[in-house]
């Protein structure tokens, strides 16, 4: 199986004064504003790191859902929050970490098995595999 997805971005003006818009091929995002102000000054809009965080959270959550189903569970819920860190070093800016925090409620599952499946999902998630940075995982199991 193979899928190909697209995204696009435009940037009018240059540097801090420029204004951009980002869209996804599916239309889920359509001309969402982004730029220096949305990235570093909390202006309305999005930024690349926020989009990576959403991609990582959604990818990991789906991977964990499939791990749980493969382990024989048929009901439950998983919620994941991802926090992507952007830092400046001597070479410029770099994404240095993606911190995943997940919690699940799955009848009949125990804490140890949940943590094992979550770790496998973190390691196998395609976005985890794409990111060349520290990826942490904090789990919360509600039984």
Question: Main attributes?
Answer:
143 residues; alpha+beta; OsmC/Ohr_fam; OsmC_Ohr_Peroxiredoxin
Mean pLDDT: 94
Q: Class of the largest domain in CATH?
A: Alpha Beta
Supply the CATH architecture of the largest domain. 2-Layer Sandwich
Number of helices: 4
Our estimate of the beta-strand percent is: 25-35%
InterPro entries: KH_dom-like_a/b, OsmC/Ohr_fam, OsmC/Ohrsf, OsmC_Ohr_Peroxiredoxin, Peroxiredoxin_OsmC
GO molecular function, one term: peroxidase activity
Protein name: OsmC family peroxiredoxin
Pfam families: OsmC (PF02566)
Provide structural commentary.
This protein has 143 residues and is an alpha+beta fold. The chain has two domains: 7-40, no CATH class; 48-141, GMP Synthetase, Chain A, domain 3 (2-Layer Sandwich). It contains four helices and six strands; from the N terminus they run βββααββααβ. The chain has helices at residues 36-40, 48-70, 111-124, 126-130; strands spanning 7-12, 19-24, 32-34, 77-89, 92-105, 134-141. The strands form two sheets. A three-stranded antiparallel beta sheet has the order 1-2-3. It has a three-stranded mixed beta sheet with strand order 4-5-6, covered by helices on one side. A hairpin with a 7-residue loop joins β2 (19-24) and β3. α2 crosses α3 (111-124). The mean pLDDT is 94.
């Amino acid at each position: 199986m193979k899928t190909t997805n697209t995204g696009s971005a435009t940037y009018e003006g240059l540097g801090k004064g420029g204004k951009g818009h980002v869209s996804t091929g599916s239309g889920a995002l359509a001309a969402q504003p982004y730029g220096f102000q949305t990235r570093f000054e909390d202006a309305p809009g999005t930024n690349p790191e926020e989009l990576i965080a959403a991609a990582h959270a959604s990818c990991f959550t789906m991977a964990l859902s499939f791990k749980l189903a493969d382990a024989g569970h048929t009901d439950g819920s998983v919620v994941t929050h991802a926090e992507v860190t952007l830092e400046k070093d001597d070479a410029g800016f770099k994404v240095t970490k993606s911190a995943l925090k997940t919690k699940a409620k799955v009848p009949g599952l125990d804490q140890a098995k949940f943590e094992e499946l979550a770790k496998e999902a973190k390691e196998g998630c395609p976005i985890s595999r794409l990111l060349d940075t520290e990826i942490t995982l904090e789990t919360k199991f509600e039984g």
